[in-house]
Amino acid sequence: MTDEEPASIRAAGGVAWRPGAAGVDVCLVHRPRYGDWSLPKGKLEPGEHPLRAAVREMAEETDVRAVPQVRLPAVHYRSEGRPKRVDYWSMRAVAEGGFQPDTEVDEVRWLPADEAVRLVSYPHDAEVLGAFAALPPVTATVLLVRHGHAGKRGTWSGPDTGRPLDATGWAQAQALAELVALVRPARLLSASARRCVQTLDPAAALLDLPIEVVGDFDEPKPGQQVDECALAAAAHLAALAAAGEPVAVCSQGKVLPGALERLAGRADDFTTPKGGGWLLAFSGDRLVAADRL
């Protein structure tokens, strides 16, 4: 008989912020069961994406609707004899309801980050708050995705731009719609390929937004170089970020790595699987964080 490590507990939460008298204030919760002050967080539901769980738990515990911006350090510890991982994101508070105390959370406080560090009951929460305080101001978020699965290029008899999503791709598009909605985009933009537009169709229906087709996010046409397309995509993404509105963009596999390298100013593994993507945070037109979804 062998001793096996019990399955880990997955949870997610966030540092919600709003403008304060001396910069920004962050949100803490008091839990009467433990008598502690901590960051809002909670366990993932079965099959739930951590980013969605983080936003949901923020709303459930504090009645704050928030837009995720930057992934913060994950926290690892043991709970109930099992390893536990909590993923955190910084979040901009965009709406607040009427918080009602209950048995889980009986008080919510908004404090400057340095005061919050002194109040929290656990060193790991203080570390997450420290990472948040070190961030530059985030002025825009972009959810950048690659189109969903669309079968094999060689089995499609028509022009490649007309190749549609297959059943797997449509399932990926439905899953992506929930993540797209989290950033509350003002616009949805897509490369001109049919599979790219279709990848944003469920999000467009969910958010009641049109899909704008933009050639700057297309893969190279005959006579074009990949670098040329990546440069155009990066420039367009930077311009969208500089405008300050949250947006969601669907592009293609040959374009995304080069565009992200140019925005990040470094070589890295920005390979993006079909149906995958990135949460990008900008300060002005400068990329400050790229969180792989």
Write the layout of secondary structure elements.
Layout: E1 9-20, E2 23-31, E3 36-38, E4 41-43, H1 50-62, E5 64-79, E6 82-96, E7 107-112, H2 113-119, H3 123-133, E8 140-146, H4 167-182, E9 187-190, H5 194-207, E10 211-213, H6 226-243, E11 247-251, H7 256-264, E12 277-283, E13 286-292
Parallel strand pairs: 1-6, 8-11, 9-10, 9-11
Antiparallel strand pairs: 1-2, 1-4, 2-3, 2-7, 5-6, 8-12, 12-13
Q: Can you tell me about this structure?
A:
With 293 residues, this protein is α/β, with parallel strands linked by helices. Helix content is 30%, strand content 33%. It folds into 2 domains: 125 residues, Nucleoside Triphosphate Pyrophosphohydrolase; 153 residues, 3-Layer(aba) Sandwich (Rossmann fold), CATH 3.40.50.1240. The model has no long low-confidence stretch (mean pLDDT 94). Strands 1, 2, 3, 4, 5, 6 and 7 form a 7-stranded mixed β-sheet that branches. Strands 10-9-11-8-12-13 form a 6-stranded mixed β-sheet, with helices on both faces.
